[in-house]
Write a structure and sequence with these properties.
The complex is a heterodimer of chains A (83) and B (155).
Chain A: E1 2-5, H1 7-13, E2 17-19, H2 29-37, H3 41-46, E3 54-57, E4 60-62, E5 73-77
Chain B: E1 4-10, H1 16-24, E2 32-39, E3 43-44, E4 47-56, H2 60-75, E5 78-86, E6 88-91, E7 95-103, H3 106-123, E8 126-132, E9 135-138, H4 143-150
Parallel strand pairs in B: 1-5
Antiparallel strand pairs in B: 2-7, 3-4, 4-6, 4-8, 5-7, 8-9
Helix pairs in contact in B: 2-3, 3-4
Classes of the chains: A alpha+beta (83), B alpha+beta (155).
Chain lengths: 83, 155
């Protein structure tokens, strides 16, 4: 699946997007954040306050306990500050 | 007639008069147009701000605005909605966002414009980075923006 990062999450991870294949036991958005956090210090820094991070699956906001099965694109970003 | 809906995300500035003319052109069923413009302030908490840089999530930003425009049209009898949001570097004093709502009567237009702006701020995927004397930093989200959006879901 494709993962995208925006704003300071993107800066901390050090890339704007990537394609990953998490193991089968990574079922929800929360699981994915926990799994990414273990991959490197950059991810650990980006997700150091997981409750602050917002997620979207296929261009729609989702809660962190949402299942990721079937997702084409998952995005992580800070709370929005547009308008 | 069906409602005119325009949603654009662009780097270029917009011309408010031209956008209102486009929304109302050839129609005689519109009695009210409300226009909201968001403008880049030159200071924040007493700190001078030279400019903002707006980042967005292409695809989702348009989809999210479209969802809220749809909701506004089911909630109020609107004849038109335009939302234009700029991205990229925006200097102090320049336009950031435009929301236009058109209806037969003013009340629906006023309410729908406020609703769209509240939701735009709370849930459209845009992020501001500001340039001040101390360097560049990401703007923090305000809880008051979430509170402003949630007032539309009460009863």
């Amino acid at each position: 699946m494709k993962i995208k990062y925006f704003a300071w999450v993107r800066e901390r991870v050090g890339k704007s997007e990537e394609t990953i294949e998490p193991p089968a036991n990574v079922r929800t958005v929360d699981d994915l954040i926990a799994w990414l956090t273990k991959q490197s210090e950059a991810y650990a820094y980006a997700f150091e306050k997981p409750k602050v991070i917002r997620a979207a699956i296929d261009h729609a906001h989702v809660k962190s306990d949402t299942a990721i099965a079937g997702a084409r694109e998952i995005a992580f970003f800070p709370p929005m500050t547009g308008g | 007639m069906t409602a005119n809906v325009t949603i654009r995300i662009q780097q270029a500035d917009f011309d408010i008069a031209r956008e209102i003319a486009a929304l109302t052109k050839g129609r005689t069923d519109i009695g009210a147009v409300v226009s909201f413009s968001g403008i880049c302030r030159g200071s924040e908490s007493g700190e001078p701000i030279a400019a903002l840089t707006l980042e967005h999530y292409p695809g989702m930003a348009e989809a999210e605005i479209a969802r809220h425009a749809e909701t506004a049209m089911t909630r109020w009898p609107l004849t038109g909605v335009s939302v234009i949001h700029r991205v990229g570097r925006i200097k102090a004093g320049e336009n950031i966002v435009l929301v236009l709502t058109a209806s037969k009567h003013r009340e629906a237009a006023f309410q729908a414009a406020a609703f769209l702006m509240d939701y735009l701020k709370a849930s459209a995927p845009f992020w501001k980075r500001e340039e001040s004397a101390g360097g560049e930093s990401w703007v923090d989200a305000h809880e008051r923006d979430d509170a402003a959006a949630s007032r539309w879901t009460k009863s």
